[in-house]
Amino acid sequence: MSKPSVRFRVASYNTHKCRGIHGAISADRVIRVIAELDMDILCLQEIVDAPGGTGKFDQANQIAAAFPKLHMAFGKTRPLHGGRYGNMLLSRFPIVEAHTHELPKARREERGVLHCVIEVGDGLRVNIFNVHFGTGYMERRMQIDALIGDEILAKPDLSGPRIVIGDFNEWTRGRTTKVLQRSFLSHRPRPPFRFERTYPGVLPLLSLDHCYYEEPLKLEHTTVWRSRRALVASDHLPLLADFSLEENAAVA
Questions:
Q1: Residue 173: how many CB atoms within 10 A of its CB?
Q2: Of 96, 93, 98, 100, which is closest to residue 131 (Cα–Cα)?
Q3: Distances (CA, A) of 19 to 3, 26, 172, 207, 251
Q4: How far apart are CA 128 and CA 221, in angstroms?
Q5: pLDDT tens digits, residue range 167-191?
Q6: Residue 122 Ramachandran class (φ > 0 left, ψ -120 to 50 alpha, else beta)
Q7: Residues 234, 201 contacting (CB under 8 angstroms)
Q8: What is the DSSP-derived secondary structure letter of residue 217?
Q9: How wide is the angle at C-alpha 124 spanned by C-alphas 74 and 71, nearest 5°?
Q10: Cβ partners under 8 Å of residue 52, min gap 6
Q11: DSSP bridge pairs for 115
């Protein structure tokens, strides 16, 4: 007899501040893409939360209001447009904890990690790390060292399996990929050159968005969402990963 398991879908989506390929900013257009994903946990990067400014920068509130049954957490990386800018997470499951971690930068834009502890079943918790790395080679080297360190991924009091997902801005098998694949399983299919390309949205050529995970999580399926709306809503396409976790799996 098969053991009962919890199944859930995690999506990662860099919204490019809700700026589409034609340059217009529209949170509503991004909301329509999100509605297509049928996800349980959504990791968003490049979201503006500025309710006091013009409506086009009130993105976090508009997205959260469009999905009122989902729990929300926001991780600020820097101030922007009279509000804040960073990573956002929505979840059908309760968010037990939420922590924001700054990443090192080299004269570039601030980057961060939003870590959420999510209860996907009775006493069954999963750690989601919503990541946005920089575009510079040297800054990514500093950022991966910080990510795997004692303050984030290797934090001693973590309980439950880890999923590390987001925009890593690395399209080759560079140091970030090599370091994470030492400790995590990867969503990438084989053979190794058939990567799931997510950027640029309208004609994806590069694989910038990735998902890493560890047992006892089991990866059932991954895909890149290529609907007509998604092709024009941002400069990235959403990455989807379907997981299962046995209900009696060890959480420590």
A1: 14
A2: 100
A3: 44, 6, 26, 20, 39
A4: 18
A5: 999 877 779 989 999 999 986 654 4
A6: beta
A7: yes
A8: -
A9: 25
A10: 82, 83
A11: 99, 129
Q: Which amino acid is at 206?
A: L
**Sheet architecture: strand order including 95-103:** 95-103, 111-121, 124-132, 162-167, 209-213, 185-186
CATH number belonging to domain 8-245: 3.60.10.10
Tokens describing residue 105: 């930068």
Give how far Cα 43 sits from Cα of 56, 111, 113, 136, 248, Å. Answer: 20, 15, 11, 22, 26
Structure tokens belonging to residue 65: 């209001």
Check if the beta carbon of residue 2 is closer than 8 Å to that of residue 241.
no
| pLDDT, tens digit, 9 for 90 and up, residues 71-113 | 999 999 998 888 999 999 999 999 999 999 999 987 778 999 9
Determine the angle formed by the axes of helices 137-147 and 175-183, rounding to 10 degrees: 20
* Total Cβ atoms within 10 A of residue 90: 23
Instruction: Characterize the bridge pairing of strands 83-91 and 41-49.
Output: antiparallel
Any residues with CB less than 8 A from the CB of 12 and at least 6 apart, and which? 42, 43, 44, 45, 130, 165, 166, 167, 209, 211, 238, 239, 241
